[in-house]
Structure formats: C-alpha cells, structure tokens
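#lab-general

N.A. 3:47 PM
ok so I finally got the sequence cleaned up, no stray characters, all 462 residues accounted for. can someone with queue access submit it? mine expired

B.Y. 3:52 PM
send it over

N.A. 3:53 PM
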Amino acid sequence: MSAEAISDTLSPVLTRWTIGGSAVADAPMAWKEALSGDEAELRLLAVAGQFLGVLVLPAPPGTLHTLPDLPVLAIPPVPDPLRALARRCLKALQPTGNQSAFMRLLAARGRTMHPADWIPGRSDDDLPAVYAPLQDWVAGSSARADADAVLAEANWSDFAPAARCVAFDALRRADPDAARALLATKAASEGADVRLRLIAKLATGLSAADIPYLESLATDRAPKIKAYAARLLARLGHGVSDTAEASELVAFFRIETKGLLRRTRVVTPLPIKTPAQRTRRHELFSRVDYASFARGLGTDDLVAAWPFGDDPQADAAFQAMAVQSASDAVIAAMLARLTSSSTLDLMALQRLCDRLDADQRMHVAKLILRSNHARFSHARLFIDAGADIDGLIDTNAGTALVAAFAAGSDITAEVQALGLIASQAAAQAALDRLTRAGINVAEPRLDLLRLNATLTPIGAIG
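B.Y. 4:20 PM
back already:
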C-alpha cells in the first residue's frame, strides 16, 4: 500500500475519532483483524500518529522563498528573564488596544520586544520608530539604508517605506526647508497613502514657508491629499472656504454684547427648529474653516466669545473645526479656557488632544491626576506611555485606585494605565502601596507594574 493510499485511508479514521466515534469502525477490514482486542483503537491511533509524523510531509501552499535575516534593531530586546512577563503584559493589553503604548514604554526604557515573542503585523503603524526595520522586513522590502544616513534625493530609494517615513520625520524636525524641498521632488512617485503619511509630517514646524508647496497640492490626484493640504493652509490663515457656506453657518448664530461697564461680545446659538437644520449645521462646521467662521461673526477672539456649555453639539463641532483648521495660538487659547474651570470637561479636552504638544498634554494630565474625579486611565489619554512620571500613587488618582480596590471594584484598566506612565520609582512605590492594601504581589493585575519597576532605563531610541 503506497503512502498516499495509507494517508487517504486514515482520513475517515481520524475524522471519526475526532468527533467522538470509534476510529476502528472506519478502518479497512485487514486493519480491524490486526488491531482486534480492547486496545485496538489506541494501537491504531499510535500507528497513525507515527505514520503522519514521520512518513508524511505537508506540501507547501505555494512557491517557497527564503526570507532575509531579521534586522537587528537599534536597541536590545527585553532581557531573557523578563520575556515571559513581557509576553503576559502584551497579551493582557491586547483587548484595550494599548499594545503600541506598551512598545513605547519599552522603547523609553531602551528595550524592544524579542522578535521570537512578537513581530508587528502589516497594519501596525502606531509603533516607535525603532521598529521601522522590522516593519519593512514584514512588508518584504529589501531596501536597506545605512543606519546613520540622512534622507536625501540621492538615497531616497535606499530607504524602505517605514524607515523612510522615520528618516523624513527626523529631517523635518532638523531642517524643515530641506524636508519640504525633498518632498516636493520625490512625493509624486509614491502612492497616495505613502504621500499622505509624509505630507502629514509637515504639521511639525508648520510655517508660512510651507504655503507655496501646500497650495501646489490643490491639483494632487488624491482627494485626501488635497483635503489635508487645505487643512494645513487653513491653520496658516490661508483657508479657502466657500463664502456662501461660511455665511450659512454664521446665520445659525448671533453676536450679543453683555455687561454694562465691561462690554463683552458673546456668540449665541440660535434655536434649532428641525433635525434637518441640526444636520446641516454640523455639515457646515466640517466644511468651513475656523478663520472664515470668525470673520463672518466679526470677532477677533472667537474662543473667548464662544459659549461653551450652552449647546454641547455645537461645542463639539466648533472644537472639531478648530482642531482641523485653527492656528496653534487658537488651540492654546482654547486649552487655556477649558483648563481654567475648576471642573475639567474631559471630553472637550480630549477633542483637542491631536493638536497639543508634549508639554500641553503633560499639563492636562497633571491637572486630571489632581482633580476630584482623577483617573490614571483619563490622564493616559493625554500622555504617551513611557512618560516616567514620579509620585503617581500619592496623587488623587492613586487614592481613588486604592479606594476602588478596597470597594471590590475592577481596577485592571487603572493599574494598566498607571503601569504605562509611571517612572520606575513610581511603579515600585505603587506596588508597595497596593500590596499593603491587600493585593498579592504575584497577581496578574500587577504584571505591568512589576515589569515597569524591574526595567532600569538605558539609552533609548524612539
């Protein structure tokens, strides 16, 4: 009997056994006689397992090809004794979508995940720059630039896509004019998604010098490129909103003057009479730029005049407009107004998050940690993992965490957020406080804190 025939004969035998029937029932008559007795089925399955494991080789699904060696990343992996703990932490964070944040925590401490424990998927974009070579390896790119090479027109093709994006970001931060000139020369040869990722880097160090290039993108073949360039132009005061649409949006509001001695101009939303009007107003907010709206209302300080709290839907749409098309100064003014209140509006602050710089985000996070309804998970929305903040367990958020544990509440998300943003000393202090409160130090909930407290910072690369 050939190997192929034996394999075909075994198929129904193993199927029957898998679903709970007698494997011997479907065996050929000659096999039944040879395998008679109380242990017939076990002997049959043992022989079948040996046959399939030794004499049968699975055929590859397609053409095989040899992959290049895994790239060596610029910073070392987690030490071997901590790899199992790091794997558990990564698995625990998967349902919350914080795996990339975990990678940033490790990178901030000068470590990466061991490639035997984790390799990025093709859709994993939000990763520290140190993983760019591994992302390009996964994508099958063979381009390899020198580690210390500066991106330029001559070596553009030497960089694989992820590494090129990282190098372009570094160039934009170091020499904005050179980065813009390089983009004007080379971007047209890239696909729309790659162009958009590169053009988005212009938001860093955005200035009037970028205006001619951004205006040239009005003829780009990709609508999303044109739309993004228009948003950047609007932030520089060069918005091109439709005049009729801007006037229509302004008609949903009126300017009133209040106060006897100190005359204050205040924007007042007019009553919405139908759902169609509300839908139209929301649509206009998404189409009109901030500067055009402010000019239409006749005010130079629209943030100060805006009646936050009177119409939550209008507030959200107004903030979305500002995030898309207002200048950095307007965003800073809006942040100052929202944080001047004794009660923080977390949702309103979160809408601004994409436009805040690192210092502004840290300021908001510290306000949240000191607030009456402090949560580590709320502060984590504004600051990146690896922020290395000291004294966290002594904040109002730390007090709330210990109280939540004493009350029997689920504290998993809070402990994870704490572990992502705490310094090594703060993580150890939190472990000590929580174990004194009654949590077993070996509990899986404390895995991230234990890893944080163990990882001594070494030279890190983003």
